[in-house]
Amino acid sequence: MTVLEQLRTRRAAVQAEIDTRQTELDGILARTDGEITDELNARGEALIGEIGTRRTTLTQLDGRIGELGAAEQREAAAGAARVELGTTGREERADGSSRVEIGAEPRTYTQATARTGTSFFSDMYRARFSGDFRAAERLQRHQREAEVHGELVARDVGTSAFGALIPPQYLLDLYAPAARAGRPVANAVQSAPLPAEGMTLNIPRGTTNTATAAQATENSAIQETDYDETTLTVNVRTIAGQQDISRQALERGTAIDMIIFADLANDYATQLDAQVVAGAGTSGTHLGITATSGIEAVTYTDASPTLSELHPKIADAVQRINSLRYQPATVVFMHPRRWGWMTAQVDTTGRPLVTSESPMNPLGVGQAAAYGQVVGTMAAFGLPVVTDANIPTNLGAGTNEDIIIVARATDLLLWEENGGAPRQLKFEETLAGQLTVKLVAYGYSAFSAGRYPKAVATVGGTGLVPPTF
């Protein structure tokens, strides 16, 4: 049995465990209050924790299965393409028949070829400015190799960095880019393609609903309430950055423009995410989640905060979305320092309240050493936790508080073009008299949490000052 088959078998087993526990939990919840004993109540809490743990495991398994499935597809594509990319040897046999062998040639661009003068970036320059057909031919071959090996879909920047070309694998493997917070919240909200034209998006939003009521008597007037709507205007914003580099660096260096474009793209993603979380809506920024009028705010005031005291405040945020949006919350966003503090909390006997497994009555299940994705589950609520370092840590009177965001992510809308990848431009003429090339990355996007403000509830206050460990 292959690893992929083992993972699929394991996933089926975990799903079966979830279904079994959910059925048992549903049976407990179906009882009346008088029938629920302390023992049943404890069992119900344990089942909730066990279900949360297994859902986290299911998410992790799905991710790994997706990775291996994609690798399997790439390997199949590689096998189909080796005839085109490989060498063919023919051996004539005594009976007049022949045997054909297919072998793989070395990659077009490697560290060894770079040392002998066959460089990806020098070929890029020669093909574009010198009309070198041999350089263009090598670039086309490299493009086919990248497709076969699945490298076109495995890049943080995307294939737009050099049109339809992408730098060789060995260059990217050796480069250590600057650390960025990324875009965890932006990746979690509802995504939509940005319309091709216009700098504003107008969304009708119902503000006065129709109504019904019991008819007092036969033939008497029935309820009539006129429906009214207000247009929600969402601005399209531009996030951009530039970098000037010398032509000497471009022509004599290695991977300079690729490194600069990658760094600009990474910072673009971080800036977009920061605006989605807390943009003020002024000076060309998005109106972010925390700045949206009408969202719910829960205050946690505590000079000596504990997870046991914070937990009811998160529960309050969850119930406010249920009570006011009439739909369930789907995610909890928090800063990595808050999740780290939560995983460090213990009960009176020294046992952790948030663990990687499912003990009796945990407040959370997950892993401290994870970031920018689903790192765990708030067990009592069944909500995944996503950490994001772009969540502000300078809030409150002491400018040192962070905030927890509970949300129904499908009600938060982010419109982007090009799948979220910024456009990239290279200007050769702007500073030609200085032998300077200007690299520019920019993109258009729009975001709004205002369609359903009650789909968001925040938890903040003095109980969320810098944690101690």
Structural overview:
- The protein is globular.
- 29% of the residues are buried.
- The strands form 4 sheets. Strands 7-17-13-8-12-11-10-9 form an 8-stranded mixed beta sheet, with helices on both faces. Strands 3, 6, 14, 15 and 16 form a 5-stranded mixed beta sheet that branches.
- It has 3 domains: 3-83; 106-174, no CATH class; 181-212 and 222-469, Major capsid protein gp5 (Major capsid protein gp5 fold).
- It is built from 11 helices and 17 strands.
- With 469 residues, it is of the alpha+beta class.
- A hairpin with a 5-residue loop joins strand 1 (86-92) and strand 2 (98-104).
- It has helices at 3-29, 38-85, 111-115, 120-130, 133-148, 169-174, 184-188, 247-252, 256-278, 307-324, 336-344; strands spanning 86-92, 98-104, 190-193, 200-208, 228-235, 237-246, 296-299, 331-334, 354-355, 364-366, 374-378, 383-387, 404-407, 413-416, 423-431, 436-448, 456-460.
Brief sketch in words of this structure:
With 469 residues, this protein is an alpha+beta fold.
Any chance you could write out the topology, listing elements then pairs?
Elements: H1 3-29, H2 38-85, E1 86-92, E2 98-104, H3 111-115, H4 120-130, H5 133-148, H6 169-174, H7 184-188, E3 190-193, E4 200-208, E5 228-235, E6 237-246, H8 247-252, H9 256-278, E7 296-299, H10 307-324, E8 331-334, H11 336-344, E9 354-355, E10 364-366, E11 374-378, E12 383-387, E13 404-407, E14 413-416, E15 423-431, E16 436-448, E17 456-460
Parallel strand pairs: 3-14, 7-17, 8-12, 9-10
Antiparallel strand pairs: 1-2, 4-5, 6-16, 8-13, 10-11, 11-12, 13-17, 14-16, 15-16
